[in-house]
């Protein structure tokens, strides 16, 4: 079946199932075309809450679908491929986090949204790459437990001046964790007129060479509102699809085209698997209600802190 036929079938199934498709910014172009909402994982989970859809298909990695289930517990939430994990999320387990909490009983636990549901349920606050610094600056404690991304932890510590207890000490994204100072310098030489945007999951010394550091959604806004016309994109290469769809009048280059530029887990999610999810209602995400409630409480606590 060709791509055009697949797209048409997905659109038909979506209407038939009263479904909504959420596509992460890193998804392939054809998936973004059929999606109702495109964005980062947290933004998409919130978008799902605004719809009346009975079925939510999350075109992204597993923790994102779990998160959507926690915030939309009474809906059917589908993950196109349950094997689509995340090196950051899978770096932290419940036992490790509990042990660190016992070592620092007075330190608040702030978890990056890139974490699995059972771990998220132990968080006091849940943040994104765009809110981590804001939240930790607002906390009264000078010592904060933060995980699972160690590079983002370093970035937060650098900007807040607080003591960040990294849990685990070496959790990293398979894509962003591979960026080097040399890579950024080579890319600048290749595209001298372009502004360099880099995701804060990259190492701190790499972020120091960027013109802009931000989340995927923040990159879109920066590119849209900037007076510059060319940009190097220092994040997963699928992001170019979202940028070209949402900022079509500007030019974007990947920071690298090496194999590690593409997250192998994001690549597992294909339009064919999205079609199968809708057709057969697979794979259903199930998490305990108590876990979902704990995650929602942490999200709500975070929201109140940011608005306070």
Automatic annotation (TrEMBL):
Gene Ontology MF terms in the entry: 4 iron, 4 sulfur cluster binding; metal ion binding; quinolinate synthetase A activity
Cofactors, names only: [4Fe-4S] cluster
InterPro entries recorded: NadA, NadA_sf
Gene Ontology terms: biological process: 'de novo' NAD+ biosynthetic process from L-aspartate
Listed EC numbers: 2.5.1.72
Pfam families referenced in this protein's UniProt entry, alphabetically: NadA
Keywords tagged on the record: 4Fe-4S, Iron, Iron-sulfur, Metal-binding, Pyridine nucleotide biosynthesis, Transferase
Secretion signal span: none
Annotated SUPFAM superfamilies: NadA-like (SSF142754)
Pathway membership, UniProt: Cofactor biosynthesis; NAD(+) biosynthesis; quinolinate from iminoaspartate: step 1/1
Gene3D superfamilies attached to this UniProt entry: NadA-like
Protein name, as recorded: Quinolinate synthase
Taxonomic source organism: Vulcanisaeta distributa (strain DSM 14429 / JCM 11212 / NBRC 100878 / IC-017)
């Amino acid at each position: 079946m060709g791509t055009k036929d697949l797209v048409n079938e997905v659109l038909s199934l979506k209407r038939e199932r009263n479904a909504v498709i959420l596509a992460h910014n890193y998804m392939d172009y054809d998936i973004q075309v059929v999606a109702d909402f495109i964005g980062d994982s947290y933004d998409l989970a919130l978008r799902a809450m605004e719809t009346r859809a009975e079925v939510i298909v999350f075109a992204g990695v597993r923790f994102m679908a779990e998160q959507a289930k926690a915030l939309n517990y009474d809906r059917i939430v589908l993950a196109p491929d349950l094997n689509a994990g995340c090196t950051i999320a899978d770096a932290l387990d419940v036992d490790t986090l509990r042990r660190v909490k016992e070592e620092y009983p007075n330190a608040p636990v702030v978890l990056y949204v890139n974490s699995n549901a059972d771990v998220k349920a132990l968080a006091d606050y849940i943040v994104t790459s765009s809110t981590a610094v804001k939240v930790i600056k607002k906390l009264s404690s000078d010592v904060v437990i933060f995980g699972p991304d160690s590079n983002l932890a370093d970035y937060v510590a650098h900007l807040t001046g607080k003591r960040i207890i990294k849990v685990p000490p070496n959790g990293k994204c398979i894509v962003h964790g591979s960026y080097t100072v040399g890579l950024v310098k080579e890319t600048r030489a290749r595209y001298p007129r372009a502004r360099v945007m880099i995701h804060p999951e990259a190492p701190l010394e790499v972020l120091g060479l960027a013109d802009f550091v931000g989340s995927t959604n923040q990159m879109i806004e920066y590119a849209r509102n900037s007076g510059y016309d060319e940009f190097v994109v220092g994040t997963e290469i699928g992001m170019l699809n979202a940028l070209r769809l949402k900022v079509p009048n500007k030019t974007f280059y990947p920071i690298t085209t090496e194999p590690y530029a593409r997250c192998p887990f994001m690549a597992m999610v294909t339009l064919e698997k999205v079609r199968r999810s809708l057709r057969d209602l697979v794979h259903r995400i199930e998490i305990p209600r108590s876990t979902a409630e704990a995650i929602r409480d942490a999200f709500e606590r975070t929201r109140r802190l940011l608005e306070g």
